[in-house]
Amino acid sequence: MNKKNVDKLIPYAIAILDTNDKIINRQTGKIKGSCGSHMKAFGPAIRQASILKTITFYYKEQNDEDKGREYIAEYVKDVMVAGKMVNEKYKTKDLLTVYIEEAGAKTILEKRLFNQRILEAIVACKLALITYKDEKDKSQVKL
């Protein structure tokens, strides 16, 4: 993972998050529901399973409470598009399609480079997300 690439993506991640009503509750200014937990689990899930299995899981049919997984995957894809890590044509496609088309019939080195780009985008998204408080966080002291 390249720290310079992550640093370059952070402003895009913050800008996209500022306009994302699916992840941030505009009334409270906090992260909605389980979106924070899903974002925190994205990277470790990739390390335990694989990128393809994790992305597939994040797009798997979900009830309304778990819809945050899909929103997080879309957020990562949007950051990759904004940061020009993937072609602009993927703006309307989901992250699973992007992965299949970008890493599908490529060499092992090209797949690993694309995997690194996804991980860099995830780290940038996590860093952007910590600028907001979580609605589920009960440790906040009320004055």
Strands, helices and their partners?
Blueprint: H1 3-18, E1 24-25, E2 30-31, H2 35-48, H3 51-59, H4 68-82, H5 95-103, H6 108-129, E3 133-134
Parallel strand pairs: 2-3
Antiparallel strand pairs: 1-2
Structure description:
There is one protein chain. The chain is mainly alpha-helical and 143 residues long. It has one domain (3-134): Orthogonal Bundle (Peroxidase, domain 1), CATH 1.10.520.30. Helices cover 59% and strands 4% of the residues. The chain has 6 helices and 3 strands. It has helices at 3-18, 35-48, 51-59, 68-82, 95-103, 108-129, and strands at residues 24-25, 30-31, 133-134. Strands 1-2-3 form a 3-stranded mixed beta sheet, with no helix packed on it. Helix 1 crosses helix 4 (68-82), helix 2 (35-48) runs antiparallel to helix 3 and helix 3 runs antiparallel to helix 5. The longest helix is centred in the C-terminal third of the chain and has 22 residues, at 108-129. The model has no long low-confidence stretch (mean pLDDT 86).
State the gist of this model:
By secondary structure, the chain is mostly helical. Helix 2 packs antiparallel against helix 6 (108-129) and helix 3 (51-59) packs antiparallel against helix 5 (95-103).
Task: Provide tags for this entry.
Peroxidase, domain 1, three-stranded mixed β-sheet, mainly alpha
Report how far the terminal alpha carbons are from each other. 41 Å
The portion of residues forming beta strands comes to: under 5%
Order of helices and strands: HEEHHHHHE
Write down how many β-strands occur, each being a DSSP E stretch of 2 or more residues: 3
Q: Report the uncertain regions.
A: none
Domains, number: 1
**CATH A-level architecture:** Orthogonal Bundle
The main pleated sheet reads as: 3 strands, mixed
Proportion of helical residues: 55-70%
Going by CATH, what is the homologous superfamily? AF1862-like domain
By CATH reckoning, the class would read: Mainly Alpha
Shape: globular
Average pLDDT works out at 86
Count of helical stretches: 6
Strand order of the largest sheet: 1-2-3
User: What value does the Rg take, in angstroms?
Assistant: 15 Å
CATH topology: Peroxidase, domain 1
Q: Which class best fits the helix and strand makeup? A: mainly alpha
